[in-house]
């Protein structure tokens, strides 16, 4: 009997202990109450610093290459007309020297040839041709170009300026002591002008001879 208790009693104790352990494991663990999180003091935010503006670097424009222009055609030079003034004046001067009422040895003022055409006309060559046709005549003594230039200067005119009117030509002739004045002009078309001459008596302004002739171009 004693042996029985010796073996049974430890088994019963072991069973009881295991049951207590199992109950303890099945009981839920006590729930711990959540402790409130302490509030951190609010720190003021630092003032916002302005973001520095970085100046933009201007882009360098691409230099274009040299622009090639088409070759420009040079403007055509205006055509310079030349005329056979001597061919037109020689026969007219010959007729004038044979006119009635001309006293040999008289002083003659030859005015510059006036342009009365419908275009631009260089009359200096015509004036030179006219004076050349009268250079060796046996009736008139010509007023020199220097005397004529001085007389024009007294009137406030350029030495190359044509007197332009018969009255001015007669006034200049009186100032230089001429008895006759030869007034001439080129009229009509500039391509084929007509030369007109008038020999006038300075004292009365009377026209004692007149003539006209065509002027041919040489080119």
UniProtKB/TrEMBL annotation:
Keywords of the record, alphabetical order, are: Cell outer membrane, Cell shape, Lipoprotein, Membrane, Palmitate, Peptidoglycan synthesis, Signal
Primary residence: membrane
Q: Report biased composition (Pro residues) as residue ranges.
A: 38-55
Q: Name one Pfam family in it.
A: LpoB
Which molecular function GO terms apply here? enzyme regulator activity
Where does the source fall among the domains of life?
Bacteria
InterPro entries per record: LpoB
Q: Where is this region: Disordered?
A: 27-78
**What biological function has been recorded for the protein in this entry?**
Regulator of peptidoglycan synthesis that is essential for the function of penicillin-binding protein 1B (PBP1b).
Q: Which family does it belong to?
A: Belongs to the LpoB family.
Quaternary structure and partners: Interacts with PBP1b.
Q: What is this protein's record name?
A: Penicillin-binding protein activator LpoB
Look up and give the organism this protein is from: Franconibacter pulveris
């Amino acid at each position: 009997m004693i042996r029985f208790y010796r073996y049974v009693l430890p088994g019963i104790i072991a069973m009881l202990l295991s049951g207590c352990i199992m109950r303890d494991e099945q009981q839920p663990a006590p729930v711990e109450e959540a402790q409130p999180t302490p509030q951190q003091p609010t720190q003021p935010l630092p003032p916002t610093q302005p973001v520095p503006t970085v100046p933009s670097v201007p882009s360098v424009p691409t230099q274009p290459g040299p622009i090639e222009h088409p070759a420009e055609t040079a403007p055509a030079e205006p055509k310079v007309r030349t005329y056979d003034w001597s061919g037109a004046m020689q026969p007219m001067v010959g007729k004038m020297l044979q006119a009635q009422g001309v006293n040999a040895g008289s002083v003659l003022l030859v005015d510059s040839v006036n342009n009365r055409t419908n275009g631009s006309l260089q009359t200096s060559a015509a004036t030179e041709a006219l004076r050349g046709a009268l250079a060796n005549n046996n009736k008139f003594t010509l007023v020199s170009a220097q005397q004529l230039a001085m007389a024009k200067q007294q009137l406030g005119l350029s030495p190359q300026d044509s007197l332009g009117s018969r009255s001015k030509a007669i006034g200049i002739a009186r100032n230089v002591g001429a008895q006759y004045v030869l007034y001439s002009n080129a009229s009509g078309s500039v391509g084929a002008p007509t030369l007109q001459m008038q020999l006038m008596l300075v004292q009365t302004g009377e026209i004692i001879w007149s003539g006209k002739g065509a002027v041919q171009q040489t080119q």
